[in-house]
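Exercise (ungraded).
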Amino acid sequence: MGATKTEHFTVQQNTIATIAKALGHPARVAIIEYLLQVDTCICGDIVNELPLAQPTVSQHLKELKNAGLIKGNIEGTAICYCINETAIEQLKSYFGEMTVRLNEKKSSCC
Amino acid sequence: MGATKTEHFTVQQNTIATIAKALGHPARVAIIEYLLQVDTCICGDIVNELPLAQPTVSQHLKELKNAGLIKGNIEGTAICYCINETAIEQLKSYFGEMTVRLNEKKSSCC
DNA sequence: TCTTAATATCGCAATATTACGATAAATAAT
DNA sequence: ATTATTTATCGTAATATTGCGATATTAAGA
């Protein structure tokens, strides 16, 4: 085997897992943080910011895009990448609600 | 190659990536949600809740534990697993702060 | 002590990820 | 048209993940 059994889980569980997986690599966390830091989102220089070769960065960007975490617009010869706020909001709500529920049930036995 | 170059990124970036990676599989999301749902955290029946074999579940639990997302206490022959609230709070703050910063800079050009 | 029950670990096969050099594709500038 | 610039894709090697059967471990109960 080796392939994830996605079909056995709910859509929401798979959605969260997909977004989380995309953030499961420090380079991709670094990319998101860089996009957040930079004012404009004309971001042709992501490659220079990261300690990785250009094809590797391109691949990471592709995965972030597939997971819906970033958007990319062609801007001449460069490409304008920026954060998809919806995905981040989704994570915020998910973990926000989870902490609320954790605080409600204080019966932590561990 | 094939190994993540963790040493090139900040501690915080690696921390977030590690926790996110642990949640990057629907089975592990399902485990967390189940632990949240169940009142007490005597959770010997996680295996019955998931469509996966016992060794596979055990492995997923191990990864969640290594990432600091759950805690496990030995309770006789069973094991009491429960969510580590700190890790969830960490994610909540991280994405919460991120949405704040996203709303501050409305200059979304995409 | 012997059995039962609950988890963990080992070993392995299938698949996925990570990284990068080489190269392609697309547009801008000369 | 030719060249430079930027990003994507291909191919491939190294490593990691996923899943499970078989087996070990650990402690409770008869």
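Further reading is listed at the end of the chapter. For now, observe: Residues 1-4, 25, 27, 52-56, 59-60, 63, 74, 76-78 of chain A lie near DNA strand C (CB under 10 Å from a C1'). The first strand of chain A starts at residue 70 and ends at 75.
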